[in-house]
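Researcher: Re-running this chain for the archive, since the previous output was lost when a drive failed. Same request as before.
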Amino acid sequence: MSTRDEKKMYTYQEWLTWDGTWELINGKAYNMSPAPTSLHQFIVGELHFALRTYLQNRDCYVFVAPFDVFFSESDQYIMPDHIVQPDLSVVCSKDQIVKNGCQGAPTLIVEVLSPSTALKDFNEKFNLYQKFGVQEYWIADPGNRTVHVYALQDGLYQVRELYTEQDTVKSILFKDFEISLSRLFSLQT
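Model: Regenerated structure tokens:
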């Protein structure tokens, strides 16, 4: 089944029975199809390559969707409350990595917007990642050719940077990690 009742609240147990790729945020089901565009995949690929290269001699791991990230209100992951599939997740605590994904907040999450996910990425996911302590959150916007970078300070995303196409995006946590936006958005489709 490709749709869920927008008014119904779902649980992790129900989520386990669904076919396809789904996210569960605050009890609400989000279908992760249709397939992303070639530009979306290009941006994810460029960021994955750059992050993977940068982190190769460090104790951090880069995962590409589909990769489940589980958040739990009670720190018990037997029945997580929220399941998301960020485009990229950087996990710097090997203890969080389990057979079927990551338990708890990755250090860095990157979402690449598509028209169908933009509101969710800027609202529900922004609030979820802030609440559960994702230290740095990037939102790459291919339509506007921008990248928003948020970093936690005192439990809130108070550090906010907006990079445009002529800029080089710089990580707040990983001080010497940067990538040119002209490279990210170089694919013309």
